[in-house]
Structure to design on (563 residues):
């Protein structure tokens, strides 16, 4: 399958303008054969929303309907948005199957770890999600979504690898990581992200699609630096400080074979996890 | 006996090309999104404003950048010459406006209190008259005012409140003075500006380091550790930092903090500006 990682900018708090950006990128990359198109964290709304969260949060149904009748071909797109439910608002990510007329939701992931250190205050505005889900994409590939901070918590891929069906083929990592640390080769936050993507792909054998936000919101500079790793673990990086797309060919069969040959998780690991945590 | 092995503290150099790319991107985005035609900044002839001019020219093109040279009759003659060198090198727009008469007017009509702190008050008046010129130009020409204060002076509170500290957007406020030199060298700021001692140029013979009492080369590594890395004063002294400098900086960071806050509003209602009405400046821009 072909997947597209979209390193997009957006208009802070303006969903209708950002929707237009999504459609433009989705059409462009679908033309190049991408059947999965993933955008960054909170791609429909922007990141530094603060009190704006309450003004603009959407239900999963409303987000899906945004993609009805948009003329997109039969592709799956991943979009980040503030999700309104009956009792709370989540920092969420939807995988939506588009089509000529009606769009359908494949699944929602809610951010599990809301950062509250340094410049972050997400737990003030969002409720934390409580579990990870594995989503089945048309064509048989499976995918899990780790939203930004969740990509830094080693327990999460470990938990996914414990599932009876094994690690999902794809890890979608939408991020809005403000750049900081300009005393090295790359902004130091991106050096960390590169290590994480390599780790996911080498240790867990998952192709990883890290869609980084690019743009500026007040003091925060989102530098971009998205990455994609394929079934071989080969990493492709997007440029910094510009909107860009990466299209990557991922052999799902090869990922399945790899996993069967060298399973990441053994029954023994599970026992040790249980006894350690007991 | 414990041997003291700590060498002098240093600030790891910033990555010049990478930082330039980030700040150019930042300026371009902020100007475009806020709908300004261009930017305006005060060109003092010093290195900080020269650096901002270089970044802005790269971000939006030199013809959309205006440098206001705002000398007072006591300003050093070299200042205007150095500012003009920046204008020529970049091909930006500029205006030379002498602020002496305006400051004289302020002194004559407004500074009616007796002569205490006369020098400091006059210095403040100059900084605030310059601010008036910049914000007047801003409205007249739809130009965003770029700030030119660096992190070292912001940390020390070495600025006039509502004077040189006033701007719409400051691209270099998270760069220590040491970083300003690294980035300026990378961008090709003229040598003459790199070599002269930093000065607010508010009275004759004034230099930052003379007034502050310490050199930026000593201040910056300590500030970086106290401020960004949250190392403790005791740990820094143990690593060989000057205890007097460490004490001075740890106090300054807090006692000057009022200069870095927007005016505090007495809270009476549920949502109060500056307290819990939380929106980014860039919302809906």
């Amino acid at each position: 399958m072909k997947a597209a990682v979209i390193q997009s900018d957006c208009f802070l708090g303006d969903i209708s303008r950002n929707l237009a950006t999504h459609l433009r990128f989705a059409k462009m990359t679908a033309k190049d054969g991408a059947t999965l198109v993933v955008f960054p964290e909170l791609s429909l709304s922007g990141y530094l929303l603060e009190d704006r969260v309450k003004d603009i949060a959407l239900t999963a149904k409303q987000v899906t309907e945004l993609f009805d009748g948009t003329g997109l071909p039969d592709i799956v797109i991943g979009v980040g948005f503030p999700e309104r439910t009956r009792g709370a608002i989540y920092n969420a990510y939807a995988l939506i199957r588009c089509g000529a007329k009606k769009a359908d939701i494949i699944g929602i992931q809610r951010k599990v770890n809301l950062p509250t250190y340094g410049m972050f205050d997400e737990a003030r505005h969002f409720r934390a999600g409580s579990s990870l889900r594995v989503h089945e994409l048309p064509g048989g590939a499976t995918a899990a979504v780790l939203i930004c901070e969740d990509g830094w918590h080693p327990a999460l891929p470990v938990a996914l690898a414990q599932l009876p069906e094994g690690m999902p083929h794809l890890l979608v990592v939408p991020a809005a990581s403000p750049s900081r640390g300009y005393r090295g080769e790359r902004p130091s936050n991106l050096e960390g992200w590169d290590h994480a993507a390599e780790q996911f792909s080498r240790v867990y054998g998952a192709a990883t699609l890290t869609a980084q936000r690019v743009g500026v919101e007040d003091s925060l500079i989102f530098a971009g630096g998205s990455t994609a790793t394929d079934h071989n673990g080969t990493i492709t990086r997007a440029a910094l400080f510009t909107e860009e797309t990466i299209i990557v060919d991922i052999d799902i069969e090869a990922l399945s074979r790899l996993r069967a040959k060298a399973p990441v998780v053994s029954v023994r690991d599970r026992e040790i996890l249980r006894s350690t945590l007991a | 006996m414990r041997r003291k092995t700590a060498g002098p503290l240093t600030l790891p150099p910033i990555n010049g090309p990478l930082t330039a790319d980030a700040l150019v991107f930042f300026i371009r985005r902020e100007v475009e999104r806020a709908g300004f035609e261009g930017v305006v900044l005060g060109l003092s002839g010093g290195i900080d404003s020269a650096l901002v001019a270089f970044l802005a020219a790269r971000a939006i093109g030199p013809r959309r950048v205006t440098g206001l040279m705002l000398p007072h009759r006591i300003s050093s003659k070299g200042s205007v010459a150095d500012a003009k060198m920046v204008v020529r090198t970049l091909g930006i727009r500029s205006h030379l406006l002498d602020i002496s008469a305006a400051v004289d007017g302020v002194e004559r009509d407004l500074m009616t209190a007796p002569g205490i702190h006369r020098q400091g008050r006059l210095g403040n008046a100059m900084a605030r008259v310059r601010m008036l010129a910049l914000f007047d130009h801003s409205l007249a020409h739809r130009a965003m005012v770029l700030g030119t204060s660096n992190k070292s002076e912001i940390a020390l509170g070495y600025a006039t409140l509502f004077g040189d500290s006033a701007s719409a957007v400051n691209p270099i406020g998270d760069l220590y003075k040491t970083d300003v030199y690294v980035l300026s060298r990378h961008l090709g700021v003229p040598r003459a500006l790199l070599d002269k001692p930093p000065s607010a140029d508010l009275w004759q013979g004034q230099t930052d380091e003379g007034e502050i009492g310490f050199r930026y080369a000593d201040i910056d590594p300590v500030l970086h550790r106290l401020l960004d890395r949250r190392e403790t004063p005791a740990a820094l002294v143990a690593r060989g930092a000057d205890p007097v400098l460490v004490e001075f900086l740890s106090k300054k960071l807090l006692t000057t903090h009022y200069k870095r806050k927007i005016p505090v509003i007495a809270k009476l209602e549920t949502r109060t500006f500056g307290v819990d009405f939380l929106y980014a400046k860039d919302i809906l821009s």
Chain A has eight helices and 14 strands. Chain A touches chain B at residues 11-14, 48-52, 179, 182-187, 215-218, 221, 223, 240-241 (CB under 8 Å). Helices of chain A lie at 15-31, 52-56, 60-66, 122-125, 155-161, 188-204, 252-261, 267-277. The CA atoms of residues 60 and 83 of chain A lie 6 Å apart.
